[in-house]
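Support request from a user on the community tier.

User writes: "When I paste my structure tokens into the form, the page sometimes reloads and wipes my input. The last time it worked, I copied everything first. Here is what I submitted, just in case something in the input itself triggers the reload:"
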């Protein structure tokens, strides 16, 4: 089955969208076609890949025949030009940075990101037809830099049973490697102790120390030699090899062995801490379902979620995860939604309710009809979003990468100067003494503590936010939330519930209230706007859509349609003025929908909205944490907008704005801020895409299941609570504090040991602590970023 998505820019007619869907569905070899009017996307599925070009050509002809002004664009999905690889055996953060840099140089690669925190390599290709060739070049470059690593396409892992086999294999390899290392450590310690405690001849003593050194340091020496051959000199293996061989050369055998042993033990615990961190973050986001119980006739068959198709019936027993998005057709149960929303309170599901993948069924048995394939489910999009968040790096991460590039060569050069210059200019100074001090410099010169802990801190922060139902699309957005100066809220669906109710119907002239409501309901029948849905709900009867002709939705105004040969206009005061309908603006608290029939004013309907329970608390809390400017934008009339703003304590409010005017107003707000300050826009994600895109940080408060908003925003709140923005800012601030704690601690200790080493006070023992010990402490500290609670 092949799926193609086409963007229909300028599609403003819901009825035309319905016609396009029907006609494209009838094209030969098309299995299904659907038009999402909100996201303006046509999705076509076919089982005949060889016919896809012909199908798309016919579909384009149909679209242009029905809607000549629509601009057709094939959706360039990232997955078509992007591949994710699992990198096994990579235990050096600095090496990961070098791999990323080298792969980015390859022709045909748009961008490559090596995420050490998850051991994933994400490659975006600039040319789809060269993906195989470029992938081979990238893998070859990575293995040239880091021998012994294994690179596996994630799609292949998925095919082998949701990655379970691969996880078990990784754990088995890790266990065997750990046993080998511990055996080598044990033998080395025994030989080292014998040589240290027993009085034996010099050559026997040397042999014992040397054999002990080889047991614990041979792999470091081999890696150093291989890296030198590849032209990769300044890495930790080379530095440790030079430092310990240098110790042997000045007959400091015990120190040479001890330093290598201490280094390797430190690396062992560092790798263990990193792996535990990875597993903790993976467990935090372990919302991917492992299997689905599909109903085939009278039998229940267990399959992988990828095997289930739209329309299949699945059974979810108590304690199981719901594997795919769907509609409950039978059963009643309480479900745990915390994996997606961060909310611990269970929600009730019954027949007719929507169920999302990732929910955990707590009580009864549910029978669900699948509405989305696994790759299109909300949980799949969330997993993809969080796992790939590290590709958008924070400025601090980029700074550390650049810093590491210069730090090591400068320290190594300083070591050379310390080894050679003082013995030549200082009286009674010996080369042995100053070479030892230079070796201290070499041990401290690896920037791993920073290179490992900083990305891990941001990744932990993103994971912690996810646990609270806040999806952050990159560490750059998480860091930007630290400098928020202005928060701009949309009103409807963001600060108010968006659950509109018809509170008043006023008919004028010969038309009755019932007729007025029916005309309004028919006119709004193709719209998903909350006001439209409230009118349809108030009408409460089945709508005869065949009576509607020439339907046209005008964004920011309303709807024009021909219903039973009557020209009907339904919308706000601006639409009435546009249609030259003589009507006075109504000073009421609520949204007023005006209706005209054949150019004559026929009446109006008043619709009221409610303020969300925690909206006022959100505004108050923002002020308490130091947000200076809070603004509200709305398309509602001035009296309604100001009344809502006054109740919430918002000083600045702009009313009666069209979608493009909201963007203009936001741009003016951005113009008056400083370079450092950030402007956040919070919207419901339905009609706010242009404003979300224009803000420094666009926050979509979407609740569950709004895929369009997940794609549009930089930060996604998975519940309808505006107060979640405060939680997001607090997580960002906590993450930044941890990042700067690690930077200050790592650099502080290293600089102190370098100074002490220069004056001969610090030994290589302190130097090894400043390298692996500091890295270990920084990693443990980094994991606090994922502990943030609401």
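"...and here is what came back when it finally went through:"
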């Amino acid at each position: 089955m092949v799926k193609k998505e086409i963007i229909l820019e300028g599609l403003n007619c819901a009825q035309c969208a319905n016609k396009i869907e029907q006609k494209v569905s009838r094209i030969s070899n098309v299995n299904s076609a659907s038009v999402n009017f909100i996201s303006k996307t046509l999705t076509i599925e076919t089982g005949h890949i060889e016919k896809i070009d012909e199908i798309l050509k016919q579909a384009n002809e149909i679209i242009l025949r029905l809607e000549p002004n629509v601009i057709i664009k094939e959706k360039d999905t990232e997955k078509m030009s992007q591949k994710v690889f699992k990198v096994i055996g990579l235990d050096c953060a600095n090496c990961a940075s070098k791999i990323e840099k080298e792969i980015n140089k390859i022709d045909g690669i748009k961008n490559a990101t090596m995420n050490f925190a998850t051991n994933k390599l994400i490659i975006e290709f600039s040319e789809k037809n060269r993906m195989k060739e470029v992938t081979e070049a990238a893998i070859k470059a990575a293995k040239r830099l880091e021998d012994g690593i294994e690179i596996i396409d994630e799609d292949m892992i998925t095919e082998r049973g949701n990655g379970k086999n691969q996880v078990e294999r990784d754990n088995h390899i890790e266990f065997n490697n750990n046993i080998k290392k511990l055996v080598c450590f044990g033998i080395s310690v025994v030989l080292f102790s014998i040589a240290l405690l027993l009085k034996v001849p010099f050559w026997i003593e040397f042999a014992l120390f040397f054999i002990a050194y080889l047991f614990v340091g041979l792999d470091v020496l081999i890696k150093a030699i291989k890296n030198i051959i590849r032209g990769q000199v300044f890495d930790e293996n080379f530095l440790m090899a030079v430092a310990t061989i240098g110790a042997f050369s000045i007959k400091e055998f015990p120190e040479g062995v001890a330093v290598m042993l201490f280094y390797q033990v430190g690396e062992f615990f560092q790798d263990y801490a990193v792996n535990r961190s990875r597993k903790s973050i993976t467990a935090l986001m372990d919302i991917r379902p492992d299997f689905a119980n599909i109903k085939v006739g009278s039998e229940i068959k267990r399959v992988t979620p990828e095997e289930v198709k739209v329309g299949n019936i699945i059974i979810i027993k108590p304690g199981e995860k719901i594997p795919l998005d769907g509609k409950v057709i039978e059963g009643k149960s309480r479900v745990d939604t915390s994996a997606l929303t961060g909310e611990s309170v269970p929600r009730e599901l019954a027949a007719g309710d929507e169920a999302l993948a990732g929910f955990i069924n707590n009580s009864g048995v549910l029978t669900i009809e699948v509405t989305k394939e696994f790759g299109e489910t909300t949980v799949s999009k969330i997993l993809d979003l969080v796992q790939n968040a590290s590709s958008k790096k924070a400025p601090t991460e980029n700074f550390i990468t650049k810093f590491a590039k210069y730090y090591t060569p400068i320290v190594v050069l300083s070591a050379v100067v310390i080894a050679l210059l003082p013995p030549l200019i200082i009286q009674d100074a010996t080369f042995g003494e100053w070479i030892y001090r230079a070796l201290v410099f070499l041990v401290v010169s690896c920037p791993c503590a920073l290179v490992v802990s900083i990305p891990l801190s941001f990744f932990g922060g993103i994971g912690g936010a996810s646990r609270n139902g806040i999806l952050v699309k990159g560490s750059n957005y998480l860091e930007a939330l630290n400098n928020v100066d202005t928060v701009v809220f949309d009103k409807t669906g963001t600060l108010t519930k968006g659950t509109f109710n018809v509170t008043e119907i006023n008919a004028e002239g010969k038309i009755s209230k019932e007729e007025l409501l029916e005309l309004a309901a028919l006119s709004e029948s193709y719209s998903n706007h909350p006001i439209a849905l409230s009118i349809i709900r108030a009408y409460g009867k089945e709508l005869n859509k065949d009576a509607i002709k020439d339907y046209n939705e005008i964004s920011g105004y309303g709807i024009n349609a021909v219903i039973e040969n009557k020209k009907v206009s339904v919308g706000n005061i601006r639409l009435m003025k546009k249609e030259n309908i003589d009507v006075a603006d109504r000073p009421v608290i609520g949204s007023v929908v005006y209706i005209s029939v054949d150019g004559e004013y026929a009446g109006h309907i008043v619709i009221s909205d409610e303020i969300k329970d925690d909206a006022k608390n959100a505004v108050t809390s923002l002020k308490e944490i130091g947000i200076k400017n809070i603004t509200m934008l709305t398309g509602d009339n001035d009296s309604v907008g100001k009344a809502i703003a006054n109740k919430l304590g918002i000083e600045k409010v702009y009313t009666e704005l069209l979608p493009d005017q909201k963007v203009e107003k936001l741009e003016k707000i951005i113009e008056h801020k400083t370079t450092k300050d950030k402007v956040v826009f919070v919207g419901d994600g339905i009609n706010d895409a242009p404003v979300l895109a224009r803000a420094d940080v666009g926050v979509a408060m979407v609740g569950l299941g709004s895929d369009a908003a997940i794609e549009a925003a930089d930060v996604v709140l998975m519940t309808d609570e505006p107060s979640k923005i405060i939680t997001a800012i607090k997580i960002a601030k906590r993450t930044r504090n941890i990042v700067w704690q690690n930077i200050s601690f790592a650099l502080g200790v290293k600089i102190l040991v370098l100074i002490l080493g220069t004056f001969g006070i610090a030994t290589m023992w302190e130097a090894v602590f400043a390298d692996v010990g500091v890295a270990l402490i920084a990693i443990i500290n980094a994991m606090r970023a994922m502990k943030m609670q609401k």
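Agent notes: The reload is a front-end session timeout and is unrelated to the input. Residues 168 and 174 are 10 Å apart (CA to CA). The two ends are 43 Å apart (CA to CA). Escalated to web team.
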